[in-house]
Amino acid sequence: MFEASLLICSLLTAGECFSLEDTRGPYETQQLCKSRVNEMVHDVWESIPDNSSIEYQCTLPEFGEI
Fold first, then answer.
1. pLDDT tens digits, residue range 12-66?
2. Is residue 65 included in any domain, yes or no?
3. Domain residues for 48?
């Protein structure tokens, strides 16, 4: 199972980043996770400054994580 998240960083100010965690997942495949990431980017695209970078992750949660 994969969990989706975004990391949005300012290109002008080093270290100025924030993360967005998905509330719908986890997803059975990496492809489904990437589809969700695309939805998340679409949802926030107009809300972030032009001088920002967006990175994504589709990660496997650690065993034992609740």
1. 887 789 899 999 989 999 999 999 999 999 988 888 877 888 899 998 877 544 3
2. no
3. 3-59
